[in-house]
Amino acid sequence: MDNPGSEVSTVEDFPEEFLFSHISLLDLPVEIFFHICSFLDASTLVHNLGLVCKQFYEILKDDSFWKVKINRIWPNARYPLLPPDEDDELFWKLSCVTIEKQTNLWKNRDLVETFSLQNGHYGTVDAVLLINNGQTCITGGRDRLLICWSLTQPGEEPCDQLCSGLGHEGWIWNITSMDDVIYSSSWDKTIRSWDVTGNSLTPIKSHEMNVQGALLCMNSCPELHLLATGSSCRKVLIFDPRMEKSVARYSPHQAAVIQISMNSKYLVSASEDKTVSVWDVRAGAVMKTFLLAKDSFAMSMFMHNGLVYMGDSNSNIHVLEENNDFNILKSYKTEHTKGITAIHATAGSLMTASLDKTVRIWGATDPPQSIVDFECKHGDVANMHYLNEVLAASAENAIQIWRAKAVYQHQL
């Protein structure tokens, strides 16, 4: 009970500065909170504001907010280049962060620096691999050399060779990594493993593949500790590098196997005969083999988030879905004028490299919309790799690097 003579306080009885000092974001209607969030970058929302308290975290769990934010960047951002992942509650948040970050970076050429790795190879560099968060680049070429390059920090002078040496007795065609070990494949029919420690590239073992033709493609599956390779004699081999014999060996094509990619469930191979074959790893059998196109064959392949992206000899992109029996969902004609030799997908973009001497970065839209195109000053692009805002394209005698400048990295 109030004391006799006491008066009830009203809003007018409190100083204005007292009232406003006690109003916070927690008191705002959700609609106004979302409106304020629309002016903030996705990374700040996910990694800062969303962690302030449980209320902010719960509000920012709403997938519809992130879908709207993504569509403000790319109005046509949708399936299949931006595939939904219903099992991952962070998918739309992290996709938005990646899309916003990559779009802002690649649209503004002033935020990107480029330089070349030269005076190491003589001849076409067909194999390129970035490791150590994009701070080290491993390359192999038709000169049979395997070179390890140290990429300096953004804004510093270009890089130094850590080591260089004869990697194989034939052209080095592919490089991959698994469990901190580097693997290279060659026309000499061998796959060799290497340890990259400090400033050295030390050979570990040489695996003889016992095939009649050159090894033209290779991919790894760290989850199963398996390597897969395709050869010019039409064979596909799957093996565990810890063992001396193959896990599987089969011939699904009528011509050379030139592209291969795998995950823990399936292995997808492509051939010069214009066909694509799917091997069921668990069943140990070919699931299906089909014609990709009547007038072109796959020159590049990348598996990401349940989709298989292929670039063909007629500069088209094909998208296949794992959960739809690997049927072709969409095919797109690109702005490349020659075959697509490399393709890479992220949560925020699609990257392609071509024999027309360009590297193009596309938004996750349907159809893909170009963000930027870079010209490789060393000629036709033979291969490409992307890691941690670093893009490496290999060509004749050299590798060209594009990456975020120091000023942009400080903003992340």
TrEMBL record:
Residues 22-69 form the F-box domain. The keyword Transferase does not apply. WD repeats lie at residues 250-289. Keywords: Repeat, WD repeat. Pfam families: F-box-like, WD40. Belongs to the WD repeat POC1 family. This is F-box/WD repeat-containing protein 9-like. It comes from Fopius arisanus. The gene is LOC105268187.
